[in-house]
Structure formats: C-alpha cells, structure tokens
C-alpha cells in the first residue's frame, strides 16, 4: 500500500509536468493523427522525454526501480503509431538499461515492447477508422494494464536470479499497474480536453465568420456606400456581439452601431488618431485600453474603452476602415480581433469584385453600342447604289426600299432598352432582308418560319440581327450559286424555345465567334446574362454545306412578357 | 469603239453601269458577269479593253481575279466599290481608276474621258502587288470547282486548253499556264507542263536527255531537256 501511494505521488508530479506541457502549443501537433514526419518527430521527442522522466521519478526498491515509465511509452505508441511507439520504448528502454540493476535488460526490453504495443493498438484502431477510441482515456488505461502485465512477465522470464525477480514482481506489480494505468488515463484525458476545446473554439469562430460572409454578400457591389456600410455594421454587430461597430471611408464615419451611437454620428469627420493612423499606414491598430490607451475623441463620457481599427485594403489602397469597440467594462476578445481582420479582408474582396462586375457590365454595354453603331458601310453604300438603280425602272419599288432602309437604320441607331419582343426583332431583320434581297435578287432566298405564339417573347435587343447579317454575309459571299437563309422557331417537347438561323454556305469561323464574332459573342453573353447559363448560342457547321446557329431560350412561359 | 466588261455580283449594280455606259455610243458593253469565274472566262473570250470590276465578290474577290489574268493581255481595270477606297488605294498601282458606289455621273465621265485618251495605246506593265493565288477556279463538267493549290500535282496545256491535275483527276481552268507559273509555286518542267515540287515521287532520266516525273498519285509528267537542268538544281542535285 505504501508503494502504491508513493508511486501515485510520483505520478502526481509527473502529471503536473504533463499538465504544464499541455498548455504549450506543442500539444496541438499531438492530436492531428497526422501521418506527417514533423508531428511524428514531435511525438517521439515528447514521449521519450516522459519515458525518461518516469524512470527518474521512480522509487528504488529491491535493487530495481518501481516507475511510471510505461505511461510515456504506451501513450507515445497510441498517438504516434507502431514505429514511433517502438522508438519511444527503445529510447526509454536504453536509458533504463544504462542505470543498471538486475532487471536492466528486462526493463529495457519490456519498455520497448510496451511502446510497440501502444503503436499496434494505434494501427488497429486507425485501420478500423475508430479515431475517437484512440483518444478515449479508458483505451489508454486498458492498454497500460496489458502493457504492465507484459512487463511483469518479461521480468519473470528474463531477470535472474528468478527468486529475486519473483519477489520484486510480487511487490511492485499491483502498484505499478495502478499508478501507470491512472497516469495514462489522466494524461490522455488532458490531451482530449485540450483538443475538444481547440475544436470548439475553431468551430465557433469559423461559423461566425461564415455567417458574416454569407450575410454580407452583394451588399458592396456598388462600393463602400453609406447604405452598404450601415447594413454591414448591423450584421457585424449582431454576429460578433462586440460593444460597437463602426465603418468609415477615408475621411468620415459612414455607419455606427452599438454603445455610444448617441455621439458617434455617421457623416462626421474622423478625428480618432487610431483611425487616422490605420488609414495612413494601412496597418491594423489595436488600442486595448491598457498599454495602448484608447479614449473616445468625441465625448469624454463615452463608455467605450478599447478599439480595433482594421483598414480595408482594395488594390493596395486603403478605402476605409472597420472598427470594433468594447466598453470599458469588457475585455477585447482575441477571437474578435482575428475576426475583425477577416471581415476587413472579406469586405475588400467584395468591393474589388463589385468594381470588376461593374466594369464588366460597362464593357458589355459599350460593346453593344459598338454593334449598334456598326452599320456595315459596305451594306449601306451598296444599298444606296441599288436604290439608285431601281429608281430608274421602278420608282415605286425604290420608294419601298428607301422606307426599309430608313426603318433599318432607325432601329439600328435608336433601339435603346435592354430587351425587345421577338416581333420587334423580326421587324428589324425583315427590313434588312428586304434590302439584301433587292441587292442580290435570285442569289438570295430567305425563308422565315416563326411560330406566331412566340412574337411577344422578350429577348435581349439585337439578338437576331447580328446572326442574320452573318448568315447573309456567308451565304452570299461563299456560294457561287444561290444563298439560302432559313430563320425558324423551334419549340421543344419540354417547352423550351430556340431560334435557328441557317445558311447553306457552311463556313466555320471559330464557332462563329471569329471575325464576325464580336456580334455573336455579345449576343451569347447577353442571353446568358438574361436567362442563365443553359441558354445562349450554339453553332453547328457542316463545312461547305450549312451552318446552323441556334439561340437557346428558356421555356416559353418564362420569357413571355 | 472601246469594249467594256462589267463584273459585279449585284444585278442592280451591273444594271447601273450598263445604264451609265448606254449614254456613250463610243463604248460597247461586251458582257456583264456576276462573279470572278464568269469574268475570267469573259475576259479570255472577249478581250475587253476595260473591265469595271467590283472588289467584294463571292469566293474570289476582284483583287484575286487580277492575279489570275495574264499580264500580257490584261485589260485596263476600273475598280467599282462601295467602301473599299483604302483597299483600292493600296492596289491603285494595278488599276487604271476607281469609282465609288453609288456612282456620280460626273466622276464616271472623267473616267471615260481618261479611257478615251489612252485608247489604242499599250498598257504600261506595272508590277502586280497581289498575294499569290490560293485556289484555282476550274470547271468540273457544268460545275465550278475551286481547287486548292496544295492539292495540285501538275498542270498541262493541250489543244483544249489548260488543265490542273490533282490525285482525283484533271480539271479545265481559264487561267493560262503563264499565270499559273507566275502566280503560284508550280514549276515549269516542259513547254506544256508545270509541276509541284513536293508532289514529285521520282524523276526517271531518259536516254535522250529528257526525263519523266512520276507524281505521288502515280501520274507521269514529261520533263524537257531544256528544263531538266533547272529542275535538278531546284531539287538540290548537281546539274
């Protein structure tokens, strides 16, 4: 009994050291069950240390040492796997061997065996996917009991003289079993508790960050406006639970939410030296209220006592700051500091992508203006030439042509608005085709088969025109005989609608997105913007025979005005 | 009498020129063609003094057509175009004049006056600044075929005219052997034959100093004594 107590006393010292150790960051690498070398090395070093420590803290008795060495070896094996366990045991074993005594060989051997045993259990559990069991203190207890029993058997088998060995085992077996099993169990439970804490902490802050990210999406599309700032301040205030949240641009306060909102009025020019410094340097400024003093620059009765100022950096330029405050009565949590920096990065990214989005829209708009303004001069002057010739023998026809030409030009120049009905599109196309047919007479045949029920369909303006112009250009310029154009609507069984423009030239220029591609590319982009990625333009081509450009639109009921 | 040919793919554009020319009895319209292939045939058949030529036409542009004409018998060219004035300016060296559509009658008068002045005089031979031909317009029966240059194995001329031969067989063309020699990479191997060097499989030397080429598809082409030396040099053999 005496031995049990003193061994447990030794164990207490041992566990105290283990507890202190568990407060260090090294512990983190123990619970990753990672197969990488650096973690394995850490486990080896740490638990070899504990092994040796167990030996030193042991009690000299009957020419041997009653000890808590097994704890280190078993845990090393359990956490690090067979190879690490074996090496930890071996290291501990060799160290024990050098101390001598009649059990030196037996103890050296058995420690190695204990480490290996822990490692084998690790392997067995990992293979079965039972990671949780690995961190269960009871697993450590059980394995240690088996390991210590093994050690006793080894002592009986190896240590000589046998009588002395037997006497020793009788005295130390029970105390060592109890002490080592308890030690291993408690040590493991320390490791597990630390791990759970880390996980919970991590989960909590990442859940918060994710919720903030989710709720702020799209708010800053137009940049850091007053409205956007107010919404973001509300969200951050709700999610982080800090005393107050402020968002500023480079000069003034845009939004404020929380304690002190009576005197932190949005629109006022910033005076706080912390904010000014953050804006000037682009660095995070943290005024904890202790060594780096924070005092409200507006009112001396302000309850706020600490402040974090994070600059919002878009393209290396500070465009504003986000500030988190805590009142004098509360400590500023570290987690909120990391969170604040994360939110600033998030906002910066959103603002940058908002800028990008805006520029993209501008680009599409100006591209559209370009095709709109792009009345092909060749077409225009040839049309006028045709009119001039037709006047000679048929003034009435010439008048009709002039009207078509006017209609075509007017539509090209004036059609504003993003969408038009299919009827308007066809009207535009018809005027164009009337002139082309006059120009080329027999060399151009146009067939139009459009379902009347689709005429009110809304499509992006200038959807059909560029495609038809393309088809005519190809049909006329690449066929020595007759160019044939077919414009047809197709309603599929599932109700989705497509418009087909087919010519008989079969010229494949980069899926129709080559030279004439400016037009087709924009049409495709605009349709996708309006109806989604499933819609758009598809080009099929049988070289020398036909080209089919299909505009896929969504189901009819969705596009009808 | 000045003989004129009109080439334009738009019927009303041809009609317009016909009407403009009709007021000038010293000009005779010998034909009007809707594409370059017809034009080539018309020019070779009727030998007009002047061709009013549209630039943008199906398959073969007016400028490409220029490259298919024999420089020796080249008529005077007046480009007629809707908007290609820059392109025309670039090719001005090859053209006598150019007109913009719709054609102003006064401007047209000036062109006719210039044509009257040079009528009967030989045309100064300018150097054609035209990209080499990419395909050769041919007739296969009643159909028009555009044969791509790399497919041609050789070309020959006989009593019926000029033919280009591909692995699939021979097709008649309106281009002369001289134009083919000047404007393509076909090489003269005989007074009546041109051959594409990379289509030669073997050259068999004959006793009389002549030779015979076998092409990739197994057709034979004669080589005259006069051209054998040059041919061997081109292929990298010592003459």
What's this, in brief?
With 561 residues, chain A is of the alpha+beta class. In chain A, 59% of the residues lie in helices and 16% in strands. Chain A is built from 17 helices and 14 strands.
Question: Explain this structure to me?
Answer:
The complex is a heterodimer of chains A (561) and B (239). Chain A is of the alpha+beta class and 561 residues long. Chain A has 3 domains: 2-201, Arp2/3 complex 21 kDa subunit ARPC3; 226-352, Beta-Lactamase, CATH 3.30.450; 374-559, Heat Shock Protein 90 (2-Layer Sandwich), CATH 3.30.565.10. Helices cover 59% and strands 16% of the residues of chain A. Chain A contains 17 helices and 14 strands. Chain A has helices at 2-22, 37-56, 69-80, 82-98, 104-127, 131-134, 137-158, 162-216, 226-240, 273-281, 334-373, 377-393, 395-414, 422-440, 464-478, 517-531, 556-559; strands at 59-61, 64-66, 244-248, 253-258, 285-287, 304-314, 317-327, 419-421, 444-449, 458-460, 483-491, 496-503, 536-542, 546-555. In chain A, helix 3 packs across helix 7 and helix 14 runs parallel beside helix 15. The longest helix of chain A is centred in the middle third of the chain and has 55 residues, at 162-216. In chain B, strand 1, helix 1 (11-22) and strand 2 (27-33) form a beta-alpha-beta unit. The relative contact order of chain B is 0.10. In chain B, the strands form 3 sheets. A 7-stranded antiparallel beta sheet of chain B has the order 7-6-10-9-8-12-11. Chain B has 2 domains: 2-118, Response regulator (Rossmann fold, 3-Layer(aba) Sandwich); 135-234, OB fold (Dihydrolipoamide Acetyltransferase, E2P), CATH 2.40.50. Chain B is built from 7 helices and 15 strands. Chain B has 239 residues and is an alpha/beta fold. The longest helix of chain B is centred in the middle third of the chain and has 14 residues, at 105-118. Chain B has helices at 11-22, 36-46, 62-67, 85-90, 105-118, 177-183, 225-234, and strands at residues 2-7, 27-33, 50-54, 76-81, 97-100, 135-140, 143-148, 154-158, 161-166, 169-173, 187-190, 193-195, 200-205, 211-215, 220-223. Classes of the chains: A alpha+beta (561), B alpha/beta (239). The A-B interface holds A 377-378, 380-382, 384-390, 392-393, 438-443, 476-480 and B 9-13, 15-16, 19, 34-35, 37, 56-59, 82-84, 100-103, 144.
């Amino acid at each position: 009994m005496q031995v049990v107590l003193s061994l447990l006393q030794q164990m207490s010292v041992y566990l105290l050291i283990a507890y202190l150790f568990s407060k260090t960051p090294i512990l983190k690498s123990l619970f990753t069950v990672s197969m990488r070398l650096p973690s394995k090395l850490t486990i080896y070093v740490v638990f070899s240390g504990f092994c040796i420590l167990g030996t030193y803290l042991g009690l000299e008795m009957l020419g041997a040492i009653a000890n808590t060495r097994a704890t280190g070896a078993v845990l090393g094996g359990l956490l690090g796997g067979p190879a690490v366990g074996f090496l930890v045991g071996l290291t501990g074993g060799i160290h024990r061997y050098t101390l001598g005594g009649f059990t030196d060989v037996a103890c050296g051997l058995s420690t190695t065996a204990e480490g290996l045993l822990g490692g084998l259990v690790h392997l067995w559990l990992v293979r079965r996917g039972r990671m949780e069991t690995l961190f269960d203190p009871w697993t450590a207890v059980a394995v240690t009991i088996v390991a210590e029993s093994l050690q006793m058997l080894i002592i009986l088998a190896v240590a000589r003289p046998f009588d002395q060995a037997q006497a020793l085992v009788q005295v130390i077996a029970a105390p060592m079993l109890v002490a080592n099993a308890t030690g291993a169990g408690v040590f493991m439970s320390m490791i597990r508790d630390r791990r759970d804490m880390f996980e919970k902490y991590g989960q909590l802050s990442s859940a918060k960050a994710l919720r903030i990210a989710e709720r702020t999406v799209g708010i800053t599309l137009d940049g850091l406006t007053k409205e956007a700032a107010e919404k973001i301040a509300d969200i951050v205030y709700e999610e982080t639970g800090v005393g107050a949240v402020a968002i500023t641009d480079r000069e003034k306060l845009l939004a404020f939410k929380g304690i002190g909102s009576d005197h932190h009025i949005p629109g006022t020019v910033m005076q706080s030296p912390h904010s000014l410094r953050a804006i000037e340097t682009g660095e995070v400024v943290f005024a904890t209220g202790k060594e780096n003093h924070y005092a409200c620059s507006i009112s001396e009765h302000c309850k706020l006592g600490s402040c974090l100022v994070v600059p919002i950096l878009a393209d290396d330029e500070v465009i504003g700051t986000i500030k988190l405050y805590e009142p004098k009565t509360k400590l500023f949590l570290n987690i909120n500091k990391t969170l604040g920096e994360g939110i600033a990065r998030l906002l910066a990214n959103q603002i940058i992508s908002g800028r990008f989005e805006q520029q993209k829209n501008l680009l599409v708009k100006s591209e559209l203006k370009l095709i709109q303004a792009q009345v092909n001069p060749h077409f225009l002057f040839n049309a006028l030439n045709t009119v001039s010739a037709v006047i000679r023998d048929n003034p009435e026809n010439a008048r009709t042509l002039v009207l078509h030409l006017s209609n075509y030009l007017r539509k090209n120049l004036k059609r504003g608005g993003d969408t038009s009905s299919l009827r308007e599109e066809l009207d535009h196309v018809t005027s164009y085709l009337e002139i082309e047919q006059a120009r080329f007479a027999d060399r151009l045949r146009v067939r139009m088969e459009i379902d009347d029920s689709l005429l009110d369909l809304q499509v992006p303006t200038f959807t059909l025109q560029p495609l038809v112009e393309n088809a005519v250009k190809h049909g006329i310029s690449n066929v020595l005989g007759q160019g044939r154009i077919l414009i047809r609507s197709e309603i599929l069984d599932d109700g989705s609608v497509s418009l087909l423009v087919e010519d008989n030239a079969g010229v494949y220029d980069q899926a129709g997105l080559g030279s004439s591609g400016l037009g087709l590319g924009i049409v495709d982009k605009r349709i996708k913007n309006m109806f989604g990625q499933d819609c758009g333009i598809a080009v099929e081509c049988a070289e020398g025979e036909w080209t089919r450009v299909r505009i896929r639109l969504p189901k009819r009921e969705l596009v009808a005005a | 009498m000045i003989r004129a040919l009109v080439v334009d793919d738009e019927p009303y554009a041809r009609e317009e020129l016909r009407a403009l020319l009709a007021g000038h009895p010293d000009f005779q319209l010998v034909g009007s063609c809707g594409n370059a292939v017809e034009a080539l045939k018309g020019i070779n058949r009727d030998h007009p003094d002047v061709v009013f030529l549209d630039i943008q036409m199906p398959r073969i542009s007016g400028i490409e057509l220029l490259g298919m004409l024999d420089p020796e018998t080249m008529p005077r060219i007046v480009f007629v175009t809707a908007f290609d004035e820059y392109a025309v300016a670039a090719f001005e060296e090859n053209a006598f004049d150019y007109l913009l559509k719709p054609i102003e009658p006064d401007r047209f008068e000036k062109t006719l006056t210039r044509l009257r002045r040079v009528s009967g005089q030989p045309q100064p031979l300018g150097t054609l600044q035209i990209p080499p031909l990419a395909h050769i317009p041919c007739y296969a029966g009643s159909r028009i075929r555009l044969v791509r240059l790399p497919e041609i194995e050789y070309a020959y001329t006989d009593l019926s005219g000029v033919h280009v031969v591909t692995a699939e067989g021979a097709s008649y063309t309106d281009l002369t052997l001289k134009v083919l020699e000047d404007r393509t990479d076909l090489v003269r191997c005989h007074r009546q034959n041109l051959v594409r060097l990379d289509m030669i499989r073997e050259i068999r030397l004959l006793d009389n100093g002549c030779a015979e080429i076998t092409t990739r598809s197994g057709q034979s082409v004669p080589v005259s004594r006069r051209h054998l030396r040059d041919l061997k040099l081109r292929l990298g053999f010592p003459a």
